[in-house]
């Protein structure tokens, strides 16, 4: 078996590490955007259901 500490990383590996670090530093903007859109869709559907189903029925007596 080879000792992992004895192997040297190639310049390509260092470049990949730098690219990954840059992506992580930029933050989870895509995930936040997807979560925001999903939340907006759920709220819009809730209001649509409320206005088109509950309000036309009137007050329950």
Topology readout:
Elements: H1 11-26, H2 29-57
Describe the structure.
With 61 residues, the chain is mainly alpha-helical. Helix content is 74%, strand content 0%. It is built from two helices and no strands. The protein has helices at 11-26, 29-57. The longest helix has 29 residues, at 29-57.
Tally of helical runs: 2
The gross shape turns out to be rod-shaped
**CA-based gyration radius:** 26 Å
Mean pLDDT: 81
Structural class: mainly alpha
Which oligomerization state do the chains in this entry correspond to? single chain
Unreliable spans: none
The main β sheet shows up as: none
Helix content: over 70%
Portion of residues in beta strands equals under 5%
N/C terminus separation: 79 Å
For the secondary structure, the number of strands is 0
- The topology string of helices and strands comes to HH
Features:
single chain; 61 residues; mainly alpha; 2 helices; rod-shaped
Provide a concise account of the structure shown.
The chain is mostly helical. The chain has helices at residues 11-26, 29-57.
């Amino acid at each position: 078996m080879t000792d992992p500490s004895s192997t040297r990383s190639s310049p390509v590996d260092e470049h990949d590490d730098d690219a990954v670090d840059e992506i992580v530093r930029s933050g989870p903007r895509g995930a936040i955007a997807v979560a925001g859109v999903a939340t907006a869709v759920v709220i819009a559907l809730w209001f649509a259901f409320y206005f088109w189903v509950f309000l036309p029925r009137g007050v329950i007596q």
